[in-house]
Amino acid sequence: MEGFNELFGKIGDFFVNNWFNIVGAFAIFIIGGILITLLSKLLMKIIYSTKIDNASGGFFVALIKVILWFFLIFSCASILGIEGNSFLVAFSSVALAIGLALKDSLANIANGILIVINKPFKKGDYIVVSSVEGVVRKISILNTELTTADNKRVIVPNSTIYNNNLINYSANPTRRLDMIFSVSYDSDIKKVKQVLYEAILNYEYTLSTPAPFIYLDAQSASSLILRLDFGLKIVNIGMLILD
Known about the structure:
Blueprint: H1 2-17, H2 19-48, H3 54-79, H4 84-101, H5 103-118, E1 126-129, E2 132-139, E3 143-147, E4 153-157, H6 158-162, E5 166-168, E6 174-184, H7 189-201, E7 213-219, E8 223-233
Antiparallel strand pairs: 1-2, 1-5, 2-3, 3-4, 6-8, 7-8
């Protein structure tokens, strides 16, 4: 009981003797937090008004916020009279414990940085990774947000994206596609090819080079299998999922 009384006495003395520093540190913490929030919003507005990829820019702004919050907490600790070396030692110990507990999250942060640096995709791209596919909406510190074709929101950890094979359907402005048609043995193959060729050439987004190509691909028990290969100009997301 005496130990608790002594502890509470020391805490009380600390507040009495350092009330001015405590009020100052609290005020700086509040004002600093507001300034960090305003600065983050300003940086995002600048990013939106430039050609910088919004998803990558958002990642860096989030990273800057974390760094600024660290310096703000360090400054408040200094105002309270906590020595810098002591604070760093204590912070390092806590950071080590948190790092061991959140090693997967730290891996996501590291892989998020690699994603932003290597730029395998950008905001608005249609990607497929680890059996998940959708349009990239946001790259955050820990994960990447996708919107699926049926308008579902999917959160994918950055480590999952960076450590798996990734398909970016939006990387190139054109794609080479193929379509398969089954026709009976009694069909006029020359006429069928002519109809298919005219139909694909009349489609406004078909590329003239390389030219569409139609050929006999296989023969089944009851039909002939024709394959149509052609180039397509990609103008919207819906055209990216023709597979």
